[in-house]
Design a protein that fits this description.
Layout lengths: L1 E3 L6 E3 L7 E3 L6 E3 L31 H16 L5 H28 L28 H10 L7 E2 L3 E4 L2 E16 L5 E18 L5 E4 L6 E2 L5 E2 L2 E4 L4 E2 L1 E2 L6 E2 L5 E4 L4 E8 L12 E7 L8 E7 L3 E2 L2
Parallel strand pairs: 5-19, 7-20
Antiparallel strand pairs: 1-2, 3-4, 6-7, 7-8, 7-15, 8-17, 9-16, 10-11, 12-13, 12-18, 14-17, 18-19
Length: 316
């Protein structure tokens, strides 16, 4: 073996066994041959060519403990269906919660009356008016119904559960009452029609535009169109019977009645109309009523037209 002299660092070829004392021939120094540790063969590293893939390491055998843990995780995944709970909560937060809040907001707006389901479109009557001094001449509700049935004109009879809007002024039928008219005179005393029933129509009004409307009640009033034709509110049935509006002179106050009002944007109000019917009139035989309200009540031409089913008539 080759050893360096500890005194002069001369490399010597020593053949003596470990523990033997030898003398360096160069410096004459004495030293003991040390015990040599056996050398471990280093692994041979083979360089790979450029562009070649590295060799894959062999998978180490799993310990029993690791295998047991993986088996337990597999059983838990199988029991839970393999769907992480965190993922479900995340989907619910991103998708389900906004949809729920949108539905709540929608029905909240409907309940407040800001948004309406199935509200009617603008209703405009293009029928000609005749200036001959006869009420509703050229716009008689029976004539309009017959012309619509023949297809000569198109009339949009708005279902009474919906509202109709003209230039942003909305009208909706709250209910129709078959019964006695009750109100108060100028002294505040109760006045009735003494048990005589009439058709009473109660309306909800609202200005949904940025304009101002000067409103005049449909109760007992006549309106003059631009060409001088006279118009009133009109009520009819499936048999095209005409029921005329009434006004009781001794009534100073009537439920829901608004004689006149200036509706500013977003303002709301109500109105009532009383229609005369024959004493032998039987409302149970009526399937539908047809209501025509002149747009002149808000300073416009045209009509609000509603189709009222018997189910909306109270007092039957």
């Amino acid at each position: 073996m080759h050893l360096k002299c500890p005194h002069c660092s001369t490399v010597l070829n020593v053949t003596s066994p470990a523990g033997t004392q030898v003398q360096c021939p160069t410096c004459q120094g004495m030293f003991v041959v040390p015990q040599m540790t056996p050398q471990v063969n280093a692994p041979v590293i083979t360089p790979r060519e450029p562009g070649s893939k590295p060799l894959r390491k062999k998978a180490q055998p799993k310990t029993e403990q690791a295998e047991g843990a993986e088996d337990a995780e597999g059983e838990e995944e199988l029991e839970s269906g393999g769907i992480p709970v965190d993922l479900i909560l995340k989907i619910a937060k991103i998708v389900v919660l906004p949809m729920f809040l949108a539905v709540v907001l929608f029905f909240g707006l409907v309940a407040m009356g800001i948004l309406e389901i199935g509200s009617g479109d603008d209703v405009v009557d293009e029928s000609p008016y005749v200036n001959d001094g006869v009420a509703n001449s050229g716009n008689q509700i029976q004539d309009v119904m017959e012309a619509a049935e023949k297809g000569d004109i198109y009339i949009n009879w708005v279902p009474a559960k919906n509202s109709a809007t003209m230039e942003g002024f909305k009208v909706k039928i709250n209910h129709v009452d078959w019964g006695e008219v009750r109100g108060r005179d100028e002294g505040g005393e109760l006045v009735t029609s003494n048990g005589r029933p009439y058709m009473n129509v109660y309306l909800e009004l609202s200005n949904r535009s940025d304009k101002t409307f000067d409103f005049k009640s449909w109760y007992g009033n006549q309106f003059t169109a631009e060409n001088g034709a006279i118009r009133t509110a009109q009520l009819s049935d499936d048999d095209k019977n005409m029921y005329y509006p009434l006004k009781f002179d001794d009534l100073a106050d009537l439920k829901w009645w608004t004689p006149s009002k200036t509706f500013k944007p977003a303002e709301e109000g109500t109105d009532a109309i009383v229609f005369d019917v024959p004493e032998d009139f039987d409302p149970n035989k009526v399937e539908n009523l047809y209501l025509d309200l002149p747009g002149e009540a808000i300073g416009r031409s045209g009509s609000y037209r509603f189709k009222i089913p018997k189910s909306m008539i109270q007092g039957l």
